[in-house]
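Quick start: what a row looks like.
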Amino acid sequence: MGIAANELSRYVIRPTLIYLGRHCDSAEALLLGVAASQSGLGAALHDRRGHGLYRIGENRHSCLWDEYLARDPELASLVRGLASQHAFLGGPHLELTVNLRYATAIAWMLIEEQATPLPAADDLLGLARIWRQTFHPQGRLRDFTHAWHQCIEPMLTHAS
C-alpha cells in the first residue's frame, strides 16, 4: 500500500505545483495519476524503470537538468531549492526516492518539457496520453485508467 491519494495531493503535489507557479487542477490530477500508474502511489519506490513515486530514470533526470533546466537558471534554482542541501550533491538520483516534493517537481518538469496542452482534470484518457508520452511510451492507456480507479478513486471518494 502506498500513500493515500488525498494526502499526497494535499501535502505534496499541490504545494509543489504552487511553489513552482504551475498549479492547476489538471496538473494536480495528472501527477496523481502518474504516481498511481508508475508506483502504486509509492507502494514500490524503485525498479529497473527508475526511482521514486514517478519512476524517473537516472538518464532522464540528468538530461532534464542538462537540456531543459540549464536553459532557465531561475527555474533551475527554484527546483534545486526543493532538494536536500548535502544529499543532492552526493546522490542526486536518490532525491527522486526520498524527497517527495523534489521528485514531484522533476516529474512536472518532464511533463512541461513536452509542451503538450493539458486536458481537463477529469479527462482520464487525455491524462493517460500525457502519462504514456512522458513516462511510459510502451504503456497502455488502460494501465493509467486502471491505476486511477484502483488507487485514487477510492481515496478521493472517502475524502469527500
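That is the whole record. The CA atoms of residues 27 and 118 lie 7 Å apart. The chain is about 65% helix and 0% strand.
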